[in-house]
Amino acid sequence: MMLEAVELTKQFKQTKVVNGVNLYLEKGEIVGLLGPNGAGKSTTISMISTLIPPTSGDVRLNNKSVIKEPSKLRKVLGVVPQEIALYSDLSAKENLQFFGRIHRLSGARLQKKVDEILEQIGLTDRQNDLVKHFSGGMKRRLNIGVALLHEPEFIIMDEPTVGIDPQSRNYILETVKRLNEEKQMTVLYTSHYMEEVEFLCDRIYIMDKGSIIASGTKEEIKNILSSENTVEMKVEKVQEPFIDALRLQPVVNHVTVQDRVITILAPKEINVFRLLFKLAEETNTVFTSVEIKTPTLEDVFLHLTGRALRD
Fold first, then answer.
1. Residue 10's pLDDT band (boundaries 50, 70, 90)?
2. What is the pLDDT of residues 33-60, one digit of tens each?
3. Which residues span the domain enclosing 17?
4. CATH code (residue 288)
């Protein structure tokens, strides 16, 4: 089974927020959709999940359009929205029962499914507690549970770990991985955390300004920078003249500064050490270490979009 978006475009008045997006999901894959804020990810997801109609283009399930008959896709699709979509004055169990009835589950079948989901998301012991008393991580887990009630074949997860503690985040990532491995569930996953994408995804689409600007496996994406090195410099103190001088160098790409760590991209054929130590001497910059690293997904993303993923 395959789900695909074909030349999806969405225009609001004079603004084109999604421009000719093509992507596909094959059974059993976890696919990442990355992009900085405002790239058009959420609008693309809304069109794929039939929540809003495209201005042009198509969404196809097994090569058949679902634009005019969205119910065919909705039967096999679960969506975990970026915002928590739960009733805070109901318990975890009551939320699952309510949404289960929307999916036309009832009686013993509904009860069995609710119990199964509570076990899957680790909330069996808290099933009778009101959602308003839950932590952010527990709400996120229940949000995922709601999307799993009707046993979807595809699930779209829009930044499901935003604003939660590391323990809950790891639990969610392991749950996604387990659903994929045990139930062959196909996942489209967006995140602001590159390490999540590294851990989960088979293939990746990178989106910016409404368009897909790169796609492929993790290794294929990293190979976009196969001719460049990532150079990481740790300094005693960040000197602004040194940063300014780096940014003026034609061979230096994408200077980023975080605390006392300065990272650049530079062509492999350039002896960048000679240049760096010359500039450091001229600006009274003292290195504590200088290290060349293999480009990461984050480096590629920065190279393609000019922004870090979380900007």
1. very high
2. 988 888 899 999 999 999 999 999 999 9
3. 2-217
4. 3.30.70.100
Structure confidence at residue 269 (pLDDT): 83
Contact 35, 56 (CB under 8 A): no
- C-alpha closest to that of 196 among 172, 164, 178, 163: 172
Distance CA(173)–CA(199), nearest Å, equals 8
Q: What percent of the chain has pLDDT over 90?
A: 65
Q: Are residues 172 and 249 in the same domain?
A: no
- Identify the domain boundary among 217, 252, 269: 217
Question: Would the pLDDT of 233 be above 90?
Answer: yes
Q: Residue 305: what pLDDT?
A: 77
* CA atoms within 13 A of residue 57's CA, in its CB half-sphere: 23
Cα separation of 121 and 174, whole Å? 10
Mean pLDDT over 249-259 rounds to: 87
CATH number, domain containing residue 139: 3.40.50.300
Give yes or no: residues 270 and 122 share one domain. no
d(CA 276, CA 107): 70
Tell me how far apart the alpha carbons of residues 237 and 105 are, in angstroms, rounded to a whole number. Answer: 62
Distinct helix (H) and strand (E) counts, the chain: 11, 14
Q: Coil, helix or strand for 63?
A: coil
SS3 205: strand
Query: Are residues 253 and 165 located together in one domain of the fold?
Result: no
Residue pair 34/202 in contact by the 8 Å Cβ criterion: no
What is the distance between the alpha carbons of residues 133 and 86, in angstroms, rounded to a whole number? 13
What is the phi/psi pair of residue 306, to 5°? 75, 5
Same domain as 233, residue 89: no
Q: Do the Cβ atoms of 79 and 146 come closer than 8 Å? A: no
Q: Which pair of tokens denotes residue 141?
A: 């887990």
pTM of the model: 0.80
Q: Position 277: which residue type?
A: F
